[in-house]
């Protein structure tokens, strides 16, 4: 065994630099000066006797070995965090710091209803929230930046623990008094591909909407995309087309102040599953189960 081993701090600096691709931004994210972060990475390179990062004035480029070391560093940091979590889990249930990533098609509709009660009933819980698309949220989970993720299934999550929160129906939204006013139950086959408005790539709701319609070719033919459900609603309200919205957003009054109406889809698969996921075998699994229960109760 080597007499000297990399420190957790050195590995954290290296991972931060890889994530941000810039010494200044990585230092800011690590709450240290740029010189401290740079010195820490140089010490790591000296310790290992290799070059991990090629430096220039404008570009930070990791060597092939540097990429492999970063991958290993992610795993080691996750294990170190699991060790801390193991100790935390032995204390009061659902307390201490917890980092939760939530996807944008859930966060603004579910969290305002849940958070006040969590703060009131779980005063020992310090919740750090991060809103990001599904794949980014799962990357944060597997790389240790998040402890758990609130997202919608089906989606490829990798090896995770999982707790069901709710089933969320999907409906078609269109302008009120539209001359092509559809019937009370809308057949997916009747959706005009030239009028369908979708979220941009990276949002799982786009894939869910296309799956419900059983017409994946619409993903490439949609002429307009939105960055959020609120943007899509405004586009529909201005007569630009129709879109698909989750019941959760309707319950949160996303259509308030608009001339947009929504009707259910005539499809047995017109739903998405809201779920909480976490790294498989996490020592805080019981905490995440408790959090899932709190989310279901909301």
Walkthrough of the structure:
It is a single chain. This protein has 298 residues and is an alpha/beta fold. The protein has three domains: 80 residues, Arc Repressor Mutant, subunit A (Orthogonal Bundle); 95 residues, D-Maltodextrin-Binding Protein, domain 2 (3-Layer(aba) Sandwich); 106 residues, Periplasmic binding protein-like II (D-Maltodextrin-Binding Protein, domain 2), CATH 3.40.190. The strands form two sheets. Strands 3, 4, 5, 6, 7, 8, 9, 10 and 11 form a nine-stranded mixed β-sheet that branches. Strand 1 and strand 2 form a beta hairpin. The longest helix is centred in the first third of the chain and has 26 residues.
Quick structural overview:
The protein is of the alpha/beta class. The chain contains eleven helices and eleven strands.
Strand-helix topology:
Blueprint: H1 8-20, H2 23-30, H3 34-48, E1 53-55, E2 60-62, H4 64-89, E3 96-102, H5 107-121, E4 125-131, H6 134-142, E5 148-153, E6 160-175, E7 196-199, H7 204-213, H8 218-221, E8 224-226, H9 229-237, E9 242-246, H10 247-251, E10 260-264, E11 271-279, H11 285-297
Parallel strand pairs: 3-4, 3-5, 7-8, 7-9
Antiparallel strand pairs: 1-2, 5-11, 6-9, 6-10, 6-11
Helix pairs in contact: 1-2, 1-3, 1-4, 2-3
């Amino acid at each position: 065994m080597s007499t000297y081993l990399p420190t957790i701090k050195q590995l954290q600096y290296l991972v931060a630099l890889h994530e941000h691709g810039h010494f200044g931004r990585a230092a800011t994210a690590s709450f240290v000066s740029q010189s401290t972060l740079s010195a820490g990475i140089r010490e790591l390179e000296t310790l290992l006797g290799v070059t991990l990062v090629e430096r220039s004035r404008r570009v930070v480029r990791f060597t092939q070995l540097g990429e492999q070391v970063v991958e290993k560093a992610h795993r080691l940091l996750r294990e170190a965090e699991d060790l801390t979590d193991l100790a935390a889990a032995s204390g009061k249930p659902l307390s201490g710091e917890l980092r939760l990533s939530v996807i944008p098609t859930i966060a603004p509709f579910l969290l305002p209803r849940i958070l006040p009660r969590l703060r009131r009933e779980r005063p020992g819980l310090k919740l750090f929230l991060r809103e990001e698309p599904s794949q980014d949220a799962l990357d944060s989970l597997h790389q240790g930046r998040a402890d758990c993720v609130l997202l919608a299934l089906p989606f490829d999550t990798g090896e995770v623990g999982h707790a069901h929160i709710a089933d969320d129906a999907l409906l078609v939204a269109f302008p009120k008094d539209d001359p092509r006013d559809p019937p009370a139950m809308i057949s997916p086959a009747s959706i005009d591909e030239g009028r369908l408005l979708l979220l941009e790539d990276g949002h799982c709701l786009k894939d869910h909407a296309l799956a419900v319609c059983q017409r994946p070719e619409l993903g490439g033919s949609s002429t307009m995309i939105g960055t959020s459900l609120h943007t899509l609603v405004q586009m529909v309200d201005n007569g630009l087309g129709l879109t698909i919205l989750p019941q959760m957003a309707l319950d949160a009054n996303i259509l308030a102040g608009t001339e947009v109406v929504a009707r259910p889809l005539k499809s047995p698969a017109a739903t998405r599953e809201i779920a909480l996921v976490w790294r498989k075998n996490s020592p805080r699994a019981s905490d995440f189960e408790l959090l899932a229960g709190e989310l279901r109760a909301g």
